[in-house]
Amino acid sequence: MKTPAIDPVCRMEVDPEAPPGGTSDHEGKRYYFCNPRCRGRFEADPEGVLAAYRTNAQEEEAAHVGEEEAPTAEPRSGGVKEVLDLTGMSCASCAAAIERGLRRVPGVGVANVNFAASKAYVERDPFRAGHEDLVAAVRKAGYGVREAGAERTAELSLTGVDSAHCAGLVEKALGGLPGVESASVNLATSRARVAYDPSRVRVSRMIEAVKAAGYGARVAEG
What we know:
This protein has 222 residues and is α+β, with helices and mostly antiparallel strands. Helix content is 35%, strand content 27%. The protein has helices spanning 36-44, 46-69, 92-103, 131-140, 164-175, 203-212; strands at 5-6, 13-14, 23-26, 29-32, 80-87, 108-114, 119-124, 144-145, 152-159, 180-186, 191-196, 216-219. The strands form four sheets. The chain has a four-stranded antiparallel β-sheet, covered by helices on one side. The longest helix is centred in the N-terminal third of the chain and has 24 residues, at 46-69. It is globular and about 55 Å long. Mean pLDDT is 85; it is low at 67-77.
């Protein structure tokens, strides 16, 4: 049996002979993906994804050694329960990666992620772990946390998009950017509507992504 490949985004095992999300080549190496969204995230920022992958792998190895040497500290009584609204997940392995990141935060006693609801349910010791520590752990794992009132919508005026195929390529380019929640293209108006987290992605980065896909884009007026 052929050794399974690892999706560099969510670290899920993938059959290299029939990867559900396809493949992508970067600097002479081929990567395999569990679904198209993971591939899109990789193609939008391959160096960033690979850096996060290497960092998380090293930390997991160190954490495993530490767990063998010392027992895990229990949180103090009266822990704070918190729910995080997550962004960027595309499969169950993404949820597992976030759980691992949260559970490594000192002071976190419970961390469970519901992939379907895009929520993380965490119980933490308020004297040892704050909200910012949880957000940092999620982002370090390669995902985002939507803060209340943080999401915004941008509208881009497109050029060169004259078919459903073109629209799909633009949506893929935008949707693969970390921090973009959704992207839809209206062929009739040649505009793209993008819901995004401004703390993770800038409109200028969206325009660059569209141009890299072979089309033109600018902030829509009116």
